[in-house]
Write a structure and sequence with these properties.
The protein has 430 residues and is α+β, with helices and mostly antiparallel strands. It contains 16 helices and seven strands. It folds into three domains: 9-101, Double Stranded RNA Binding Domain; 105-212, Tyrosine recombinase, N-terminal domain (DNA polymerase, domain 1, Orthogonal Bundle), CATH 1.10.150; 226-417, Orthogonal Bundle (hpI Integrase, Chain A). Strand 1 and strand 2 form a beta hairpin.
Length: 430
């Protein structure tokens, strides 16, 4: 009797030759004949015109289990029409191979090869590992790329995000970060296939990551209270991480810029005589606002001087302030600061959910409470003006007042860091 569930690769790979040939049955009279020499060949037993016949379908593993089943199904249609499938076998196998070549897995592998030389080794390893594990070797891999629908992609992304996909290793929880990357990479594979007509549309383009990938609740722009801010700053010296990472956290607290603007900063952007850091427009969230000036307070200059003695001596490549310790040609990873905050107990599960981006909300809230003009705060935050008349951005706008604001803010942060309190319990300000 043919096995109801069919053969598996594990069973076929483990099959050893015996003293005489034997058959391993799949289903629908499809089987593999194992010879005494150890070769394994697919065959299908069918009946036509009152007689039994056998159709050879190729050698395993050259013809996979999925391909053999497809070939058998195609051959069965010829038998139903009164034809011997052997007469059209070559055309059937060719059609199966053509369909396989247009399935998601081979096209995804092509896309990886096409980009292999342009990616860093670390990024290439990420793409190959996770795209192969969850998509190429998963359900999507064997599907014709034209047949893949939005629900097919959603099932895969949700499975990874929620930890419902098992790939040999058991996962206790999901991985939303990997799911987000998979969405990005799968979208790129569909676009690649569209270019030469192997796909008509990109189903991933209909999906936002937030539609299917649920992160643990995190308040990215959480505004810390003065007490919470003091707790973070006083805990920082005792954190066992790299000194450069600690400086990055302190500068984010002083500058309240976006993390990417600081991580990708280069020493050439700093004018210590003018006491200014000019963030190039290309690195701003709204690139049309132009360059952005960050006045340097006394505390910021002291931190930058210390940092330059550590990272400013590298003579090759980009002159990053924050060089990646594993990949010196690149800047600090996007996750480094948040991992440090997690290690300090301020980010991650069972914490208040404070991330690096939260320094912006903290500064905005507390500076407004301290009575600084809202328009000055907004310009220093590099928020664009919605009013079309005022939208043109001037990097020097309110610069004199912003110099005062940034020094006052640094004094406030220093008082928190040193745990200096007034009679009211709040930090002393200059």
């Amino acid at each position: 009797m043919p096995a109801q569930k069919g053969l598996t690769a594990a069973v076929l790979n483990a099959a050893k030759p015996g003293d005489k040939p034997f058959k391993l049955y799949d289903r629908d009279r499809l089987y593999v004949l194992v010879s005494v020499a150890g070769s394994k060949r697919w065959a299908w037993a069918y009946r036509l015109d009152g007689k039994d016949h056998t159709l050879q379908l190729g050698r395993y593993p050259d013809v996979s289990i999925i391909d053999a089943r497809k070939a058998r199904a195609a051959a069965a249609k010829h038998v139903e029409a009164g034809q011997h499938p052997g007469e059209v076998n070559k055309e059937t196998i060719a059609a199966v191979k053509k369909e396989q070549a247009n399935s998601f897995g081979p096209i995804a592998a092509e896309w990886i090869d096409a980009n292999r030389k342009t990616w860093s080794p670390w990024y290439l390893q990420q793409v190959e590992t996770f795209l192969t594990r969850y998509a190429i070797n998963g359900d999507l891999g064997a599907m014709p790329i034209r047949a893949i629908t939005v629900p097919d992609v959603v099932r895969m992304l949700k499975g990874v995000s929620e930890g419902k996909i098992r790939t040999g290793e058991e996962r206790k929880k999901g991985s939303p970060t990997i799911a987000i990357l998979l969405r990005q990479w799968c979208s790129a594979v569909f676009r690649y296939a569209i270019l030469d007509g192997r796909a008509d549309r990109n189903p991933v383009s209909d999906l936002k990551a937030s539609d299917v990938i649920k992160r643990a609740p995190v308040k990215n722009n959480l505004a810390l209270s003065p007490a919470e801010f003091r707790k973070l700053l006083t805990a920082l010296p005792g954190y066992g991480g790299n000194r450069v990472t600690k400086i990055a956290i302190e500068l984010l607290a002083l500058f309240f810029v976006r993390t990417g603007e600081l991580r990708q900063a280069e020493w050439k952007e700093f004018d210590f005589d003018a006491r200014q850091w000019t963030v190039p427009a290309v690195r701003m969230k709204k690139k049309n606002v132009g360059d952005h000036i960050v006045p340097l307070s006394d505390q910021a200059v002291a931190l930058l001087t210390e940092l330059k003695a550590i990272t400013g001596t590298v003579k090759t490549g980009r002159d990053w302030l924050f060089r990646n310790t594993r990949r010196p040609a690149e800047c600090m990873s996007a996750t480094t600061v948040n991992r440090a905050l997690e290690g300090m107990g301020f980010n991650g599960s069972a914490s208040i959910g404070f991330s690096a981006h939260g320094f912006r909300g903290t500064a905005s809230t507390l500076l407004h409470e301290q009575g600084f003009k809202p328009e000055v705060i907004e310009v220093q935050l590099a928020h664009t003006e919605k009013n079309a008349v005022k939208k043109a951005y001037n990097k020097a706008r309110y610069l004199t007042e912003r110099v005062v604001l940034m020094q006052s803010w640094s004094d406030y942060v220093e008082a928190l860091k040193l745990d200096i309190k007034t009679d009211s319990g709040e930090p002393a300000t200059a």
